[in-house]
Amino acid sequence: MSLHFLKKITINISTMKKYSFYLAAILGSILLLTGCGNQNGKASSDGALASNNAEKVYVAPGEHDEFYAFMSGGYSGNVTVYGLPSGRMFKEIPVFSQFPTNGYGYSEETKPMLETSFGFIPADDSHHPDISQTNGELDGRWLFINGNNTPRIARIDLKTFETAEIIEVPNSAGNHSSSYITENSEYVVAGTRFSVPIPQRDMPIKDYKGNFKGALSFISVEPETGRMDIKFQLIMPGFNYDLSHPGRGKSHGWFFFTTYNTEEANSLLEVNASQNDKDFIAAVNWKKIEEYVENGGGTMVPANYTHNVYSDETHSATSTMKKEVLTVDPTKVPGAIFFMPTPKSPHGVDVSPSGDYIIGNGKLSADLTAFSFDKMIAAIEGEKFDGEAYGLPILKFEDVLGGTVKSGGLGPLHTEFDGEGNAYTTFFISSEVVKWKLGTWEVIDRKPTFYSVGHCMIPGGNSRKPFGKYLISLNKITKDRYLPTGPELEHSAQLYDISGDKMELIYDFPTHGEPHYAAAIPASILAPKSQKIYKLAENEHPFATKNVSEARIVREGNEVHVYMAMIRSHFTPDNIEGIKVGDKVYFHITNHEQDFDVPHGFMMIGQKNSGLLIMPGQTKTSVWEPKQEGVWPFYCTDFCSALHQEMQGYIRVSPANSKIDLSWSLGE
Amino acid sequence: MTLVIFFPFYPTYICSINKPINRLKMKIVLRNIVVVLSLMLVACGGKEEKKKEGFSVDRAKTLEKTTESPAVTNAVSASERVDLDNKGVGPIKSVTLSPEIDAEMAKKGEEVYSQMCMACHRVDKKFIGPAPTGILKRRSPEWVMNMILNPEVMVKEDPLAKELMAEFNGAPMANQGLTEEQARNVLEYFRTLD
Ligand SMILES: [Cu+2]
């Protein structure tokens, strides 16, 4: 078979493919155009409008975006970083999931980050990012996010854009009404979605009602370092705690949680948890409870939960098992917890920038309920209660109602604010965003989303000072928005310009995983302090090779420690002999570059974990267990210079009983 | 699918075999040859193709850096040449050396050097880059400091630095982010290396 013959065939295949692709694309677009008319939000024949919108999202090559947006990854367990308005993805930050791209959760240094009371957990479901605040405004120091499945809260350092800390939340299950922070980052709050036996024990599921409990955890954030610690857990009745938000301004000191399944059903919740006409928003006066525990209140109970902390100095994480947690029985703190009846299984609970209104988004209702904080305080002071649930007072709906938004939409989920007195609510069932006015409750505008929007996000929308220029809708269903990629699609997001009276859909882009929620911040706050390198001189890693003269190999029984350095474009050492079958070889590799954006990678043939991507000044460790005799190569996986392909080395592996001494060299 | 990706390159490397090309490109091409050839072996089972594989490996040595270096006409290689007037390009315009070597500065400089530079520059032998021993007999102090502090620009704009990069296989001089003070100390240390 001649080469030319082969070549011909391949060309034919590729042209054929091209043609059928174009054909499909043309047919597809015809179908779409005729099928949906102009209801799909696509740039219409109005060329002027389309080009105007294009200008709004166009960030010229080399220019920077105006905002950073942090999107949760949902079942990816991670966080992605996007630019707005361009919709360009800059980075995926590994948080709760192993990430082979850079070795997070595979390297010896980062494995402890994923330790839990259930052991090493390689993945999770991340939901609601929130940026730290000072005086109710975004300060851009840290990003918090919850792991929903194996309950945890993570703190991401916004200098390095890396996960700095993860704390597990005991007594919780489905850590969903999380991770929202108070207006001076005093607490990051984590509420349970599923109520469970507390403490966990073997008992019949049917005995749920009255016996299961829901833990709401207040995790203190150390003001200087950001270190998290569970200050107390409020052990609430066995409802499902869905979402939460802090009070701000005048309502600072309170926290609000939506509940559903106040029926306390334990099966077929789809039907059984929708029986009550109203569920509750729980209003929690955390200042009062804080005072209570500081005066010795609460009960310390045994628990098991990990606290994992990463250090930029040692480039390593440690995992500590904590053994007890302070619980608070809410009935023991009178005047601290009240229930506000809210129509139909509310999802989001959102507090207006001034702190005046608490918005309940009853997802099986058409209307939005806005509670008035002033009225709530008046009702509490007047002790006008409408009964109680498990000893906790229920306020009268009419007494605390501030207003109702007759939206005309279906399935309200979540509301954000623009700082100009407007609110924007997403409607899952009717696939739209509705803009309405706080105080007058009138609907101003409505725009479709594509399709079935969950949360929306305005930069700073959960703070006293939103930046009301853009709104992103985070949609659950993608369908035909982009070129099809087989059965599995990424979720879609839509960008709306909200600077005018009417919202305008200006852009549409795919996201990664399932962004349940997002948080965004002006780039001018974060970009100037973004770290560029780690200083080699400050590297405190116990296995660092800070000086090439210290590169060496140390054998301890069948454990072999390779102290290795890397710089463009070689490893020191790059020839290693004396390794034996059955050894456990630890490569401790230090990147000696001190220049921005010069990482090096490392992969070793037959390595059973991921490779490493090592930043300038950083040390990372990978384990390799040679199973076969021979001479085996390793190499740099990140194209680092014109001589990158030369960045390689060999390891000679001898039989287990071999007498060959350890030796290593470079250039000899 | 893999075939579709690699075969379009086929005419390129056939032509380039007798032409000077830069090493990087050559390596990529070589890799492709190997991949393509191995695919061919699978596809055609042809034994004669093996000879070509051997041929391409032989070729790698003979081509070495006769091609890209603009210095071929210079009798003395860039690293051996003496040029004490050239101050280079960068923040350092003028350096005054004291008559006596400042031992304390030199000691600090040695520390910095051994951590930040030694991966590529061994004291008295050519390694990834040239050795610093005797450097001040060939280069001005300003040039040395600018090369440390401003390597990216130096290898583009300073003709000598450019030639040096070619002489040293195109290995880039890494910017190790030294402060001016650290670079000055390293210079003082270099004064002790004769
Ligand atoms: Cu490299």
Automatic annotation (TrEMBL), chain A:
InterPro entries: Copper_CuA, Cupredoxin, N2O_reductase_N, Nitrous_oxide_Rdtase_Sec-dep, Nos_propeller, NosZ/Cyto_c_oxidase_sub2, WD40/YVTN_repeat-like_dom_sf
Any one cellular-component term (Gene Ontology): cell envelope
A Pfam family: nos_propeller
Main location: other
Keywords: Copper, Metal-binding
Statement: the UniProt record of this protein carries the keyword Metal-binding: yes
Gene3D superfamilies: Cupredoxins - blue copper proteins, YVTN repeat-like/Quinoprotein amine dehydrogenase
A Gene Ontology molecular function term of the record: copper ion binding
Record PROSITE patterns: COX2
Location in the cell: Cell envelope
NCBIfam families: nitrous_NosZ_Gp (TIGR04246)
Protein name as it appears in the record: Nitrous oxide reductase apoprotein
Organism, as annotated: Maribacter ulvicola
UniProt lineage: Bacteria, Pseudomonadati, Bacteroidota, Flavobacteriia, Flavobacteriales
TrEMBL record, chain B:
Lineage: Bacteria, Pseudomonadati, Bacteroidota, Flavobacteriia, Flavobacteriales
Pfam families listed in its UniProt record: Cytochrom_C
InterPro entries named in the record: Cyt_c-like_dom (IPR009056), Cyt_c-like_dom_sf (IPR036909)
Domain Cytochrome c: from-to ranges: 104-194
Domain of life: Bacteria
Protein name according to UniProt: Cytochrome c
GO molecular-function terms, A-Z: electron transfer activity; heme binding; metal ion binding
Alphabetical UniProt keywords: Heme, Iron, Metal-binding
Protein source organism: Maribacter ulvicola
SUPFAM superfamilies for this protein: Cytochrome c
